[in-house]
Amino acid sequence: MNSPVLESAEHTVPAKVRYINAEWKGKDDSPRIGSRESRRANTSFQDVRVHDARPRLEAGELTLDKNGFTLTQHHSAVTDFRDDNELERVYHKEMEALICRVTGADHCFARSHLIRTEKPIDFNDGYARFVHCDYNMKRLQEMSETVLETHGVEPQKNWIYVWYNTWQPFDHPVENNPLAFIDWESLPLDDVIDYYYTGRNNDSLVAAPVHSETHKWCYFPDMTTNEVIVLKQMDGRTGDRSVYCPHTSFDFLEQDDDSLPRRSVETRLLAVFEAN
Predict the structure, then answer these.
(1) Domain tally, the chain
(2) Sign of the dihedral defined by the CA atoms of residues 8, 14, 186, 113, in that order
(3) Per the domain annotation, does 225 fall within a domain?
């Protein structure tokens, strides 16, 4: 059942977001996206309304397993978010601990991080400009074992893998280009199709949804530098749980020209749950 607060017009903003073109659904082939040109060729803008998720969070109506996303507090000890060495040494450990705290995972291992600012180096670290998932469930086992190997950890037979992302602004609160995401309860798994990410000489199988009017878009307005969004990206557990949390950035259609540019850090993490 939709929350009355979620449906209230005063708690939504209009937005245009790019989806992968619906023509790809049902095809044997999959689109390949890794540049502005390939993104434009394979995606189209759709008009959506993005709902303020804070009232539902405060009412205790949001969970990672039901909705695929949540928000939590975190005061980082990082002094320079542009220093990759400090991020790997300090921030990765902070996010591993945060994921264990928020999800109840027994172990967590960071895979990577990404900084996004108003001055991207290339397509790959610019603000995300089309609706996507970061991974594909078909690669869950392979990716999990690769990360464990990187950390020098031997996988155990009773380990079950779940992948999460974290997203945190730095330097100042978010005034534009916030992150929006689809509520899993509104996303039929059949809407999610394969695509290949080809940026920076990759050819990685990932996933993304095609557009549907049923999708409920959410965001956390006015995020501060001490808040962290947690998104679920793959879940190897059984039961009625969220699997993906498709997401993208979006522009406020009516925004002051002097708004501060968004600066954010995101991490990709493998969580391990020990089966009884």
Answers:
(1) 1
(2) negative
(3) yes
